Every structure is written in structure tokens, then in C-alpha cells.
């Protein structure tokens, strides 16, 4: 079964014929803005296994750093995927449908989390980036 995802308004849909990898949540101030949330929830995909099924023409992009960008639905504003060198690099877990058979493995930049966020006990968390 392929993994599928879609935006809030349902105009844009994608499928992944493969597994998500390296699911993580970043609590830095940039990710909070980019995801309009307490943190990002993101997993890496193999770009060859990723296909837009519908609504690709509605995607709009924002390049936050050289080579790295995010793609959104221009109708509803959902952030659907991250790009690296203009190829899909990963997906936002919030837009994935159902159970993608992966859990967030670690939380990063917890040292700069929002004052109002409470990190659950027992999760793997790093003050800054993941250790090498
Ligand atoms: Zn939408
Ligand atoms: Zn971040």
C-alpha cells in the first residue's frame, strides 16, 4: 500500500511508493514559523518514490535557505513537503493520511522551544541538532 497525503482543502494529493525515513520534530523558531505549530513534524522520502497525484499546479514554494525550500497549497496554506535542490526531500507528517508506519524518532532544538510548549517525558530530545 502506497502512503498518501493531501493538504487541508484536498486540492493537492500525493503518493509515496516506499517508506518514510528519519522522522523528526524540530522545535527551533524557524520551524515553528514554517509549520505554524510548536515544532515541525517531518520525514524524509526517496524523491524517486514520490508522485504528485493531483493539484501540482496549485503548489507554491518558498526557498528559506539556498537549496532548501518548502511547498504549500496556494488555496489552503498547508505545508506539504520540503525540497532540496528543487526535488522533493521529505513530507510534513501532518499532511500524511492514515498510518505511515513510522514514529517521530527524535526531537531537535528543544533548547530553543517556545516557552509555552511542554516536551513529553521520555522522548529522545537534543538541545540543538542531532549528534553526528
Ligand atoms: Zn489545499
Ligand atoms: Zn528547525
Walk me through this protein's architecture.
The chain has 132 residues and is mainly β. The chain has a single domain (3-112), classed as Metal Binding Protein, Guanine Nucleotide Exchange Factor, Chain A. It contains one helix and ten strands, in the order βββαβββββββ. It has a seven-stranded mixed β-sheet. A three-stranded antiparallel β-sheet has the order 1-2-5, with no helix packed on it. A hairpin with a 2-residue loop joins β8 and β9 (87-92). The radius of gyration is 15 Å and the shape is globular. The N and C termini lie far apart (33 Å). It binds zinc ion (ZN) (2 copies). Residues 7-9, 11-12, 73, 75-76, 78 line the site of one zinc ion.
Could you name the key traits of this structure?
7-stranded mixed sheet, Metal Binding Protein, Guanine Nucleotide Exchange Factor, Chain A, binds zinc ion, 3-stranded antiparallel sheet, 1 helix
Layout of SSEs?
Elements (H helix, E strand, L loop, with lengths): L2 E4 L6 E4 L4 E6 L2 H7 L6 E3 L5 E5 L4 E7 L2 E6 L5 E6 L2 E6 L13 E3 L24
Parallel strand pairs: 3-10
Antiparallel strand pairs: 1-2, 2-5, 3-4, 4-9, 6-7, 7-8, 8-9
The chain binds zinc ion (2 copies).
Helix content: under 10%
Count of alpha and pi helical runs: 1
Order of helices and strands: EEEHEEEEEEE
The best one-word shape is globular
- The oligomerization state is single chain
What would the average pLDDT be, to the nearest integer?
Answer: 96
Distance between the termini: 33 Å
State Rg: 15 Å
- The CATH class turns out to be Mainly Beta
Fill in the CATH topology: Metal Binding Protein, Guanine Nucleotide Exchange Factor, Chain A
Structural class: mainly beta
**How much β-strand is present in the residues?**
35-45%
Number of domains: 1
Strand order of the largest sheet: 6-7-8-9-4-3-10
Low-confidence runs of at least 5 consecutive residues: none
Instruction: Provide the CATH architecture.
Output: Beta Complex
How is the biggest beta sheet arranged? 7 strands, mixed
Number of strands: 10
Bound chemical compounds = zinc ion
